[in-house]
Amino acid sequence: MPVPFTNESSPPEQLFLEYAIQDVLTGRWPHLVEPWATMYVDSIREQRYGDAIWARYHMEGNVKGGIIMYPYEGDRKPVLDEIKIDAMEAKTNEPRFFAEALELYAKASATDGHPEVIEILFEADKAEPLARDDEEEE
What we know:
With 138 residues, this protein is mainly alpha-helical.
């Protein structure tokens, strides 16, 4: 059985679960909405990291029907598509943090309700990195 996450004063990792449990519980980020903020905390505590990431993308209150409601209608996209984009950007621009995140997610609980989220991250790890902005300028 995996060892539960116990350092609630620090984020589990920097890319997809960047809010510390303690900060969520104490209202440091008052814009976070329920039930997603509680789901985020509970999921991390139970090592259901796919559920935690899913809650993370919802807890700012800008998701309706699985679509992230960006201000410009043309920018709106399904949560899973945004996770794929963010994963590829993280792999390309923050490879060390991305590798650390994958180490954590490899220990996800079998009771995770969103294993497809974790699968997306590991698929991104196998893919070629995106062209970096600084490489395009050369």
